Amino acid sequence: MPGCRYVPGFLDRSAQHDLVAALRGIVAEAPFFTPRMPRTGKPFSVAMTNCGPLGWVSDREGGYRYQASHPETDRPWPPMPDMLLEAWRLLSAYPHPPEACLVNHYRPAAKMGLHRDEDEEDFAAPVLSLSLGDTAVFRVGGTTRKGPTRSVKLESGDAVVLGGDSRLAYHGVDRILAGSSTLFGDWLPGGGRINLTLRRVTRP
Ligand code: MD3
Ligand code: FE
Q1: Global ipTM
Q2: Domain architecture of the chain: domains with CATH
Q3: Predicted structure pTM score
Q4: How far is the CA of 71 from the centre of ligand 1 (A)?
Q5: Which residues bind substrate (predicted)?
Q6: Residue to substitute in 10, 51, 195, 199 for testing ligand 1 pocket (most ligand atoms within 8 angstroms of CB)
Q7: What are phi and psi of 29, to 5 degrees?
């Protein structure tokens, strides 16, 4: 897909462990919450939190949006760790810092339906995805909902930069290969996968 750059093994095992340590601190300050679908209130199977000045949230009343505070604690999101800002500088080719890092936790049975990321004002900036833990079977289509899709596996340490045409491509997570990674150790009982997406939300 044009504008999409897949960087397998971008984070080595040591960098993955450093990122897990940073995430433990983030989750201690900003616990995972369960977002809900607009109008229906149906819960997502993916648990979420954020770091950085803005975070993505969703609930029945307010729908999908970015806001500066955690929806349950009302506290500001914790800062983005330097290693994430560094990954953005290395991979994004975008001359302004990211504003939001959405942290998605997939338990082994979690999925994410086919969707586009379109809650941001600035589609000129790419979305940077970093995967940790269990492998995800990911689905990628084109910029319309109909049309062919293909299946791609994302493993712990992989990075994907979604820029150009791929920035508005349909994508989702079909399934998590439970037990495919031991990265999280005794953190996150039940294991699973964490995906981080770094985003620019506002136009600079
Ligand atoms: C688009 N997250 O939070 S990472 C999301 O794995 C989200 O948690 C997924 O979709 C996750 O909105 C996907 C971003 C990603 C990765 C590869 C892609 C988006 C992509 C390839 C093509 C198009
Ligand atoms: Fe997405």
Answers
A1: 0.95
A2: 4-199 (2.60.120.590)
A3: 0.98
A4: 23
A5: 56, 64-66, 119, 145
A6: 195
A7: -85, -35
